[in-house]
Queue: 3 jobs
Job 1
Amino acid sequence: MRTALAFAVSAALVAGTALGLAPAAQAAGTDASLRFVDIAGEGGTVLKANVVTPAGADGSARYPVIVLPTSWAMPQIEYLAQARKLADSGYVVVSYNSRGFWQSGGEIETAGPKDIADASLVIDWALANTPADPAKVGMAGVSYGAGISLLAAAHDKRIKAVAALSGWADLIDSIYSGRTQHLQAAALLGGAGYLTGRPGPELRQILNDFLSSNLDKEDEMIAWGRARSAATHLDALNANRPAIMLGNAWGDTIFPPNQFASFYEKLSGPKRLEFRPGDHATAEATGLLGLPNDTWTNAHRWFDHYLKGADNGVDREQPVQLKPRSDAGYEGYADWKSVNANQRKFALRDSEHLWANVDSGANGGVTMLSNLLDQFFQAPPVASIPLLPRAFAGVWQSERYATEQRVRGTARLHTTVTPTAESGTFVAYLYDVGPLGVGKLVTNAPYTFHDRTPGKAFAVDLDLFSTAYDVPAGHRLALVVDTVDPLYIEHNPTGAQLTFSSPTADPSYVSVPLRAE
């Protein structure tokens, strides 16, 4: 049922995006020049592309060029509204359908070596067939396009600037964080791939092994994901030193923000990190329709400075820009460490004994829906904390706060777990609890273990997904743990139990990062 739902959601998402972008495609004909072309990718595979050049470009002048690989399952008109804006401000823009999707040839390689070779061949084509300046090459993309752009920049020194939006730097830490399969995310991507493209045999096998929890293939799956992660190629990126802008949403249920933040800290070249409310790709969505959009505005400023040399101040701003999940404006920080600098702990003193395999009612919501509601209506998933069944959910609460608590960054759970089976899964949730006991979800994260000795306790440190959330005065925070969440695949054998304790020698706690006053 879950897979069927993912297919249906994928179809609606793809169809809705295509229909929404069609008017933009029809309108693209007044100033900048638009043409649709075929580009030979790796092995001669045909990549369907479109090229937008500035008005009046006659070959007498060279322009910065930006290459845009499409998102997973999206058609080649995805970026047309932004391409026209870029062309109107003096860029050549080449957008192409990633191999294996829609009319482009080949099979889906999931940002494999052929995809990286395709990106360089598209740059070759642009330099040979448009008035593109070989010294001013940029790449950008949303989601899949972001991942390919980062990987291409590690392999092609010609790429001087990148805007990677709602993408991944670490594929394993994205959909296998906490050693837990992110079920809805993987099913959504797999379903969309089958609906709009041609998954290759390697991807089909990976999806099958991943969704069937084939632990015998775990090392192979991790190696496959690592090879497709920009974090693995960090040394090459730092040697090439492209200017990299990273943008993501706090509630991205496909590529959570933690992995982008960790990657950002390790980059040594010019860099910028932006987080906003929303879910996967929703922070950029209005910009794809040509509407005002902060993410795309800053991406344009990024390229203007690092490709055109414009003195627009983007290099002098605080490089970490965060928009809380509220009506508050942007906050600037010198680095990601500064976001997490002010930690406040609350103790988890009481032991909790849980029966596994039953959903307590606490959950992280639905991929592509729950955090979209939070983005526009500040309506995250909720649970009645007093009514959660204690046989299936552990609950610990902080004191009631006298002043507003501005949670910023990555909360961490430290606890001790004693299982009755060698494998198991639990999910930790942090809630903002009001006077009536209704909890609004602040953040969550899953954790899975294997090969543990039944009855033997072990310590767990779990980073919850990074966020920026304001807890009102008079509220408290609650940590809830249970063993079932529709977002994730759980590994609790039938009848399994988990005990969460706080030994005197190693007390359990939640460490919450708060914005300094």
Job 2
Amino acid sequence: MTTVEDVPAGANDARGRVAELHAIREQVRRGPSERATEAQRAKGKLTARERIELLLDEGSFNEVEPLRRHRATGFGLEAKKPYTDGVITGWGTVHGRTVFTYAHDFRIFGGALGEAHATKIHKIMDMAIQAGAPLVSLNDGAGARIQEGVSALAGYGGIFQRNTKASGVIPQISVMLGPCAGGAAYSPALTDFVFMVRETSQMFITGPDVVRAVTGEEITQNGLGGADVHAETSGVAHFAYDDEATCLEEVRYLLSLLPANNRENPPTVPCEDPADRSGDALLDLVPADGNRPYDMRKVIEEIVDDGEFLEVHERWATNIICALSRLDGRVVGIIANQPQSLAGVLDIEASEKAARFVQMCDAFNIPIVTLLDVPGFLPGVDQEHGGIIRHGAKLLYAYCNATVPRISLVLRKAYGGAYIVMDSQSIGADLTYAWPTNEIAVMGAEGAANVIFRKQIAEADDSEAMRVRMVKEYKSELMHPYYAAERGLVDDVIDPAETRHTLIRALEMLRTKHADLPARKHGNPPQ
């Protein structure tokens, strides 16, 4: 490895010193060696600088502390003091807006974190918080640098502390592009969004070898903590992609939907999709029969600008949809039940997914639109023993605590506690609308009739005919489309074709909404 001592010194004048500087900078840019670069590419991975080039606007990157080297001794470290110490830090722009980033360089110490390495990350995190700009971490590291002992562990503590300090202040995005094991995995878990790349990125607290030793289970790294596992099973990853280029392009897209910090609104873009565009297709997309499934994504496509939206946690807790999109050029967060999956019921995972999304939207001044078609909470021993009460309460708490503009729309059924939890007027929704196909009630008509008219049905000569008559009576009395509107629990019943225009006009009115929470250090949300 070349060092500054190996760089030929020119004449002892300014030109010679500048030539020396450029030689060192070129060395920093190239990295440790061609062999290390080839090894990185052999794994199907880009180098840290190539990743930064894909993330940021061309030519916008400004590096911080490229000449930093570690000061550790022992175990041969004193003979290996590469520039950057295995992490590249700095800032640039994405779509012209400032973004801070750090990228582990796996070619240097396997991207392992030591004291100098951690100090660089701490500095760039502090700069991002102070500047009020998003932070994107490009993770590809082997964990703590064992040769530096507890100093390396303390470095992680400093990162976690700053992740927490920045939470809800600036957007934090973690992009997993290689291994992330042990305590290192907690930093991505503390951030707002986690991206992963299939086959090359993994996250786990204890690796396959430890799992095998302790439990006897045989499993691969990808089977234990790969992108698909975390995108579908654990919910740790919000997004998973096949290659790094696509992944980083989607990070750029996400950043275009987020504000720089919690004191700003998300960026608005010109919109050529007419605000008053009629959504006649909605009349055919959603069956009037509440028992028939349909794809809620198609409803969202019909309502939002140009049919475009970015779904968060697309493959985890699929019975609820959380997405970022735009209405008339302004960013909105959309939460919607998905009748195609578990009939759109709320369960433990759906409640957690939606609660975190509501909190994120509220933190970053993103209005929330909730589309309801929910038959209730998922019944069952596993759900009750798994804590559906406290998990469902997380979603309730998140909505009640949110001060951004909130609009809810009941498409079809909205039953029981799930109706209340999904941003009903009673928990603070600013405006509530319903389609003429809505059914808002404590429970479905069949179940309600069986409870209320149990005795009459049992004593009737034709119990089935009596049950049918009682169901019809209950529907006509308590579940007709205008029952909630007549009692002021729904602000209006609207033509589905007018949904887009209605939402846009309501959001425009609510744009200047101001709401204060009671003075407190912080709440104590359900866990």
Job 3
Amino acid sequence: MSESTSPTTEPAIEPGTDAAQAAEACCGVSACCTPGEQSVDPATTARQAKTDAGCGCVTGSEGGDELPVVVIGAGPIGLAAAAHLAERGLDFLVLEAGEQVGAAISEWGHVRLFSPWRYDIDAAARRLLEATGWTAPPADALPTGAELVRDYLIPLSQVPALAGRIRTGTRVIAVTRHGVDVTRTVDREERPLLVRAVEADGTVRDLRARAVIDASGTWGRRNPLGHSGLPAPGEEQAADHITGPLPDVLGRDRHRFSGHHTLVVGMGHSAANTLLSLVELAETEPGTRITWAVRGASVARLYGGGDADGLPARGALGTRLKRAVASGAIELVRSFTITRFTVPDGGPVTGSVEVIGATPDGERVLAADVVVAATGFRPDLDMLREVRVDLDPATEAPVKLAPLIDPNFHSCGTVPPHGERELAHPEQGFYLAGMKSYGRAPTFLMATGYEQVRSIAAALAGDREAADTVQLDLPATGVCSTDLPTEDEAGEPAAVQQDQASSCCGGSAPEPVTIGIGAPAGVGFATGHLHGYSGDAERGGA
């Protein structure tokens, strides 16, 4: 039922007692145990000032220590957070909008990850699973999204430490402070966080929390197809012709693409996976045509390093895509900026949509039956309007994390280790983790998310040393430098050896890293060193 209990009131201190005398001596804190106290130093919270002064009334305020940590999202990062909280002996509750754990991943379950199983499993999760007799899948096998859910996430959700603490079909719509809105400062940190969620039957529940870890990801919040971050005129009216990223071209959605002309827009691994699936479909389904439109002049960033990629399967993806374009199986349209959509009556192709774009040579019209929007994602920030978050204006990531992941200068392999301190916000006890913590940056790795939640759980347990000891082992996830030749600029690379991939920047074998290939929660570019988007300028002719 809905939490409607008012915040508990701390007991009054009788005048003349030792406690009262201690309260009066609380370094710059007025009325130690009243709800209206303020710290004299604006940089120090009332609770911290009272704690530093030895005020006994701090303990147990609002019953906060007895409340659970609420984790939003039961994907790989959310369940990893639950595993670490369980190992720390902290009470927690996981809320998942889907009908099962890993619901978002299930939507792209047909896509195979780049990294083998040995790198796809969180350490705490593995310990909890192995204690139940669970056997890990073959370490070197590359799982699909569906296999990741079936063989890892579902079993993890059923271990004794997590079972009964995961609520599916429960969508979080807001996070706030109990009894106050975002404008209220006085007494703010004395109150627990409050999570409002809607269950499948429409029931609204308010849940009080000691802390909140928002690991809800970005799936379902795709970027628009228009330029400048805005939907193109007519984009909404053309919605029936537009699919999200990673449609199941060879399976569930086959009928929509077979014998039709598909326009794929975007330059991430989601686009690459869809393009290659369409190529395979076209081999057996006459009339299936494929056009790939990108805003930039170069696609070398997606082609990547071929056999120089630290993740062999990802290098192979770029190699196959390059060949498909060269063979004419895919028509590549560069420097195409979508300016509007038109759905004509009896247009040039029956049932088609016209996608109009600006190019260096003037306006161009691409008519297609289906448009695949593989343009990346952005976080849902509407649910966070009543908590105080400090976000970078460019990436919409936590301000301390933003410079470490900025896609203008970083690729997925150059993000340094980071943890609770970089993820903390002015709202004490609130954290963004996983893909959502990266905001609009597409450089997220699951391995990074696992380390994030390990550090957060340690901090919530009071283990500051463990929280601050952050480590992240990554392979050189692509070519050493964007100045080196790529497939776009040089001849075809040697065949990718799946079992003996090497990197020019490190050892002969990849270090632990997980990247959800094709999955919006794990898109990364195939470069291993600094440059990110800035590298495009160096390869403008590619």
